[in-house]
Design a protein that fits this description.
Layout (H helix, E strand, L loop, with lengths): L4 E6 L3 H12 L4 E7 L2 H11 L3 E4 L8 H10 L5 E6 L7 H6 L4 E4 L4 H12 L7 H12 L12 H11 L4 H8 L3 H15 L4 H10 L5
Parallel strand pairs: 1-2, 1-3, 3-4, 4-5
Length: 213
Amino acid sequence: MGEPIRVLLVDDHQVVRRGLRTFLEVQDDIVVVGEAADGAEGVARAEELRPDIVLMDVKMPGMDGIDALRRLRELDNPARVLIVTSFTEQRTVVPALRAGAAGYVYKDVDPDALAGAIRSVHAGHILLQPEVADALLSQEEATTGQGRGSSLTEREREVLGLIADGRSNREIARALVLSEKTVKTHVSNILMKLDLADRTQAALWAVRHGVTG
């Protein structure tokens, strides 16, 4: 077994943080490296501890989870952020994904499902529930048309289809017998040609327009 996945918990409720820690401490491949009670502290702790994954609440006093996400992106912090939210906060998930979140789970998530979500996001996958994907797709539809896809090469369409399947760059490289550097170049070209900001938008575009791996 390799190094454990290092997780930072960011939530303004101590009881929630304690519950999440309890869930995760029984996992052999996951270690909780720290906690924070608001977005600003979460950003500071993420910079200090350099975790692999940040479990981030959305609604917090002071700097909320979305602003914290934007700040982490500005700082080029490599941590992947998994939003932990209640079902009633679903509307806030779309802005969080646009700000750079890799996915989300609900606060009443089953412990095994939570651990699985952390592993999936750590592997480079995007974790989307169908209802949120639908909301994102409807927004993308207004700004991103099918015509832009005609500029993609056959190889770029293959890469895009694998992004839609939730594959990481390493997995795409293995599947297409390419170097990771070449895959990164293809991903950059895809985002540029489709005028998209990130892999989440690329995956949604691919699903919307029938590009599959």
